[in-house]
Amino acid sequence: MRSSVFTAVALAAMLAPLGAFAAGEPVAGSLPHGGSYTMAPDPTLASAAVDLWFRAPAAGYDNATPGISRLAATAAAAATLESGKSLVSFVRGVGGRLAINVYPDLVDVSASVPASAARRVVAAMSAAYFAPALDDDSLKIARTDVAVLSAQEHYSPDDLLHDALFAQIFSSGPAHFAPIPGDLGDLKGITLAQINAFAKRAFRSANATFALAGNVDPSLLAAVTAGTPGTPDAPIVSATAPAPADRTLTAAVTGEGLAWTGPPIADERAATALDFVADYLFRDQTGVVSKALDPTGDAYVNGQFITLHDPGVMLVTIGGSKPALVETQVLAAVSGLQQPLDAASFAAAREAFLYHLAADSQSPTEQADNLGWYSSEGNGAYAPSDAQSTYWKAARSLDPQYVASVVKKYLAHPVVVRLITATSKEPTS
Amino acid sequence: MKLRIAAIAAFLLIAAVPSLAQAAGAVPVVTRSGGVTLITQQDAAAPLLHVVYVVRAGLNRQSLAQNGLAALTAQTIIATPVNGVALDDAIAAAGGSISFTVDPNDVRFEIEALPEDAGKVLALARSGLSAPAFSAATVRAARGKLIARIAENQQVALQVGLDMLSSTVATSANAGLPQFGLPAALEQLGPDDVKAFYATYYLRGGSYVSAAGRIDALPAGTLATFGETLPDGNTTAINVKLPKLTGSSRQLVAERDISAPWLIAQYPAPLVGSKDFGPMLVLASFMQRTLADMADVPGVVSETYASRAVGAVYQYENAQPDLVLYVNGGIGNPNRSFSTALSIASILATTKLEGSIDDFKAMASGDFISSTNSLEERAWLAVVYDENGQQPDYLTRTLDAISQTSAADLQRVAREYLSNPTIALVLPREDS
What we know:
The structure holds 2 protein chains of 2 kinds.
Chain A: H1 2-15, E1 27-30, E2 36-41, E3 47-55, H2 68-78, H3 87-93, E4 97-102, E5 106-114, H4 118-130, H5 136-153, H6 157-169, E6 170-172, H7 185-188, H8 192-202, E7 208-214, E8 239-240, E9 247-250, E10 255-261, H9 268-282, H10 288-292, E11 300-306, E12 313-319, H11 323-336, H12 343-359, H13 364-376, H14 390-397, H15 400-410, E13 415-420
Parallel strand pairs in A: 2-7, 9-13
Antiparallel strand pairs in A: 1-2, 3-5, 3-7, 4-5, 6-8, 10-12, 10-13, 11-12
Helix pairs in contact in A: 2-5, 2-8, 9-14, 9-15
Chain B: H1 2-16, H2 20-24, E1 29-33, E2 36-42, E3 49-55, H3 69-79, E4 81-82, E5 85-86, H4 87-93, E6 96-102, E7 107-113, H5 118-130, H6 136-154, H7 157-169, H8 183-187, H9 191-201, E8 207-213, H10 222-226, E9 251-256, E10 262-268, H11 277-295, H12 305-308, E11 310-315, E12 322-328, H13 334-350, H14 358-371, H15 375-387, H16 394-403, H17 407-417, E13 422-428
């Protein structure tokens, strides 16, 4: 009976969409065996992005095993499938690339492949995650992988600052923990049984969202043969600290980071306003603060509003030999936006912002990432990669007074984290 | 009943696997008129319109003493005041962007816009291109921007090495000069030089307008009109011959403010459309995989710093194509990785290959396909193919060329091209 149902579902999934979607318009629906999908087809491209997203706490369901999500996601990609190949080997074998992105509350398994291989990749990816068969060999690969990534992060100020700022802002819950633990001792105690239990719960089909972009169509999803219908987990939230404190950490690299808690994803206009602020001030090459930096020096600044279920976070990281000087520039620029921009400057900045939105979601990988993230955070209709989404309506509705009011409300007092090296007593100013 | 199941299965398979023609999308459309080649690739799903405008005003139009003049002229154009601000700022405020690249033969302007703003943005670009401001203030501002870009490039060791190597393969000495010139040379160039260069070389003959994305957002005829921005006429390159260096060393060395040495090897490579094009793409994939496998921790799933610190790039879009192998010394023992890479390149030419090359063909196809995801790359590739006398359906042709490559082809190409590399070493300054 199940087989018959599957055939009917598969045929329906293939036949119905042929006239049901137009190029460029995202479509969404349910997977054959639980879970959901969202996609942005572009039949003129030769490539496809196949992303599989899960809501999953990076430190485990009891927040006691930091790194378990990364270990489980990597082990599933490295485990041997019925075909005799692992998912990662299979994707590489068809000329594609596989990336595993683990966030405090989400897991994203992302493949960029030739479109002709998309169907087989959907089948392999769903088999690898919806029916995970993890063993000691795949766990060993995952441990090595995480160890390498952890070692790399010790030399990445942006990653260190991101994790440290989240640890200050969120007092508990997954966002309090780094998705890749800095201390590998945290990983050693995690057993195969724990990882299997985590994978079976987190990676069940009902908790999944396939995000597809490029030369794709809904018929590809007939290739999903594993899974069990059910209910997805709700978006994961972490508790915020009532009065987060500044912190100075000793690290292998120097840097400085600032963070402010922002609106939830449900407050679309306010979240979009903070995206606008990040673009206007901090975008590489064009941001007001970025352009004010000495081009011959080593200073750099990155700023973004991270849209999360509740709350979002505005995060700015600063590098170079004089971080305190740049911090002053950042704070002055943010403070300045509490006053509305003049109409002409604002109109120009908003038009540039809209263009940047489109420019940043050109490739199938960028689009799938965007669709998957916003769906998993609980508001797929708000994904900015879709020019018809509520995001674009909110962006077009922004005005100088509203942006200034959002800046006043959310960007008053940042949490500051400073990284210093063992040889320096305090950051250079 | 069995027949029925088989029929359904066949239907599933046929409907699900995109054919090569589907995957390739629409074939670019080429029209030529009055010295201008117009190439269009409509994509209704794209979020933007991208236009590449190629003018025969590249490095080989400047003399050795005018090092940087081609870039200074292009930068002056996008610094030209429009509505009280520089052209690039005016275009940004209108929902788009404009930038440029100086190639050995051409300067290419990249113009991009939201569909609803595309007409306005192209009109702005046209106004700057047709009537640049040659005032001292505009040229000074342009010079300042260029000098800042040069400073940025000097911090990128791979770019420094590639610039050095490109000068060794240029067919004319001026075509091998740095893209943006040198600060000292730029300081000697003023408004009159820019004005004269523009008047001499910004002519319509041999130009390209290549558009990809939401062309449907433009009123009919807009792109053809854009192609008529510059006056009629053709230009010729300045041929600057320098005596060949007679030294036996094939090593170039530079010191920069970087933390670790970079080692870069350059081999000559075939032109797009040559019978060796497909095999060289596969060979580049083979070298890339080999280098990454040597550098990386065995068996890891994620892409790591180590795997990104080494690479092989077939620069087929260059006027003088090459294959470049590079190793970033920050990964540990660069000499070992580099010498092993050179040995493999050498051995490939002389030892019979065992086993299948299918994985490398798949990798070459996948890499090429993913390089065609951006509108900029799609618009530019169509120009590169057309300039090389090929039909501009670059995707189908390239995938066919890769598909038809045999192990014997791979070895033949290795033998022909991978014998005698030129080496560039970019080293940290002794006092840094």
